[in-house]
Each structure stands twice: as structure tokens, then as C-alpha cells.
Amino acid sequence: MTTLARRPDTLTRDALTVLQPGFPGTTAPDWLLRRLGEGLASVGLFGRNITSPTQLAALTAQLRAEREDVLVAIDEEGGDVTRLEVRTGSSFPGNHALGAVDDTELTRQVAHELGRRLRACGVNLNWAPSADVNSNPANPVIGVRSFGADPELVARHTAAYVTGLQAAGVAACTKHFPGHGDTSVDSHHALPRIDASRSVVLERELSPFRAAFAAGTKAVMSAHILIPALDPDRPATLSHPVLTDLLRGELGYTGLIVTDGMEMQAIAGTYGIERGSVLAIAAGADAICVGGGLSDDETVRRLRDALVRAVRTGELPEDRLADAAERVRTLSHWTASTPKTSAATPTEVGLTAARRALEATHSGPYEPLREPPYVAAFTPVANFAVGNETPWGVAAELVRLLPGTRTGTFTGENAGRTALAEAGQNRIVAVVRDEHRHPWMSAALDTLLAARPDTIVVEMGVPQAPRRAPLHLATHGAARVCGQAAAEFLTET
Predict the structure, then answer these.
(1) Is 188 annotated as catalytic?
(2) Is the confidence at residue 83, as pLDDT, over 90?
(3) Active-site position among 182, 260, 286, 434
(4) Do 225 and 189 touch, CB atoms closer than 8 A?
(5) Which of 188, 224, 438, 476 is catalytic?
(6) pLDDT band for position 339 (50/70/90)?
(7) pTM, two decimal places
């Protein structure tokens, strides 16, 4: 076991500087404050750390009392992936809704307002936006987190998002380089592989990242994906050909490179977090993100010691670690010296965007809701990035607009028949999420529409499945404001 000196040496400080750990609770634990004094320069926040804007501001003030220029990072994409509003649902629609509207000024405004709220709470680095081109409809982890399947659309909205966020004084971390959109495996659970040619990757996947670089993104997050056309041996996060030769060399990117969470099984289950962290820094990464699942001092100590040991054994060049640490400090200085924005953003920009993203398809005559309906939510397993803490759907808003609305959650092969029995005589609003990826969900809708042809369908994922209800609403995301926009439409039409 390594014993820390009271004043850590330069090597140990650099090893701490490149870590971005998480922690439990809504106040900073003593061990985290001590590590900040020893050289730790970043922390990552998750839903477990946040209860309100006031509490979050107090937490970040506590961190800055120990280190004034600390990078406080968060995974706040808006839409389905929210940490600020993890228990209520987001006030902002996600990328897919913004891509559906295709108004880059609106995207900039949404990102700016989100950034303003983050900065007001003391957060200065956002692990967003997702610049992935969702070219694979079966993608289980990107989906509505992407602006869409068209590289040019994704590129222009990625640039607008970066511009808006950074104008609010929050550094953007564009992800997941070189592109997670053409995967059918969630890297939280296993190592995805993309077998596209190099030319396809360079043209399709990298287009949004080039736009982000042109917009000045301060950071880029690597993806835990294997792309044999770029590197047949190692996933991008651990790949020198991807991070150094391609990202630094061919693309000329000079900002901070952050890894995706190292405890994700794509890395932890194949290389282990210690070995993986050493390989990532050697490959060209500058900051090691860890803390979504591992959030204790023991993890920080293990990773610090692994990096120090790798330098001392010659596996990791000391100047590579020093360069990575300096890039972290450079971004810390930018965030500390960037003033808060004074430009106004419309306060209802999130709801405005959600309303504009709503797409209604009529395949026959229908009647708007006048009486309380029965809301049948067909709920898939949430991916790890979204989590299952955040509520979604239209039921809460319909209860507010039509008191007496009842609701139930259903899954599996008997979902449709069970929902029919529970609904009774009430008109049914069926809420789905990525119907095209779940055969049981399609079967449930078939059952409902055969028995109750006036059933309304609200798709809150990627609207790829055939639209066969008399009224089909596509919200392009499951944020709270998306549910609000759908409920308004159903009761006001």
C-alpha cells in the first residue's frame, strides 16, 4: 500500500490531476476534499449528488473552498439524460427533438439556457453534447441522445450546441469519439464493434466532431468501441492510432480528451480499470472519468498508484502524464477565468422546443381527449446512461389536465391484454419508447388497436415503427417537457 506524503511529489500530483472521480452523497466527503488539496483537479457529479439547485450550489462552493479552479463536471445532456432534474424529468428536450425541429438557433438557445443553469450552480464542464450519428436503428444506448441519422444535420446542431453551452461559461465535452451511433451493443455492458470501412467512419462518424472542433469545443470524450478499420486491437479509448494519430494528428484537435466511464464493462470487463487507465493515458487521453459506478477513495488511490507505477516501470512516459495533467489545468484556468454570460435566453425555451418537435400523424378520424383516459405505459428496460430514476411519459401531465386519468405500466408478452383489462371503458393512450426495438411492444399495440381502434399512441423514443393508430404522436424524446407538449396537444386539439 502506498502512503501519501503530506506534500505529494510532482508525479503523484499529476496522476491525481488526470482523474475525474465521482463520490456519494450531497456534500463532499472528507477524502475528496483531501485529494483536492493533494492535486486532484476534477470531480464528476451524478444524480445521487443533487437534490436542488440551492444544494448543488452549496456543494460546488464547498469544493471550490478547497480548490478554486476545480473542474466540476456533469452528464447533463437534457432530454432523457438529466442529472439536474433526475427525479422530475428535464425542462429541456434532448438532441433528437432538437434535430427534428432542425433550427440551429433554437438548439443554441437551449444549450445556452442549460449552460446558464449549470454555471449558476457552479458546474463548469458538461459531458455533452452527443455528436453520435444514430445510423443504426437498433442502437440500444444512443437513440434519442443523437440529433439524428444524417451526418450533416448532426454536425450543424453539434456546433450550435457547443457554441451555446460555452457562451454560458460551461466547457462542452463532445462525445463519443469517434462515434457510437452505428453500434448494436451498449458499452456499459460489453465492448461494441463497428465494422464500417475507414472511409465511412471518416465521412459519416467524424463529420459532427469536425464541426465541434470548428466551434471550439473545449473537450472531447472517447468511446469504448472497437473499430477495426481504425485499430483492430484496442477500443478507441485505449487506442494510440485513434486518439493520437487520428484525433490529435489528422484532425488537429488540441483540447482535452476525456475517457468515457472506465468502470463500464467495455473496459472494466476486458482490461480492468487500472490497466485501462494506464493504456488510455498512454494512448493520448488526458482525463480519466470514473465514478458513475465506482465512487470511493479506494478507487482514486488505485488509479493514482497504477499511473505512478506505470511511469516508474517505464510503461507510461512521464512526459505523457505531465502533458495530460497540463491540459486538465489549462481547461481549469479557462473555466475559472470565463465570466458568466449576461445574454438573455427565453425562459420557456425548453417547452417551446418540445412543442415544436411534436409530430402528429393522423391515419384516420379521431377525437381529442375530453374525458380522463387510461394511460398504458409500455416500458422497456432503461439503458444505464438514462437510468431508471427519471420519470417519463404523459400520465402526470394528463392527470393535471384531466383529473381522474388512470395509468399503469406494462411489459412483456402479455402487456397488451393486461392493459386492455386494466383500462376498462376508458379511452386508451398507449405510450411507447423505441417500439421498433421491442417486438413485445409492437404486439401490445396490435392487441390494443384491434380491440380498441380509437387508441392513441405516443412514441417517446425514436419513431421508426409504422404509425398505425388513428392518432400517433412522436415526441422525439421522453423529457418532462416532451410529455407536457404531448398532453397539451391531446387535450387542446
Answers:
(1) yes
(2) yes
(3) 260
(4) no
(5) 188
(6) confident
(7) 0.94
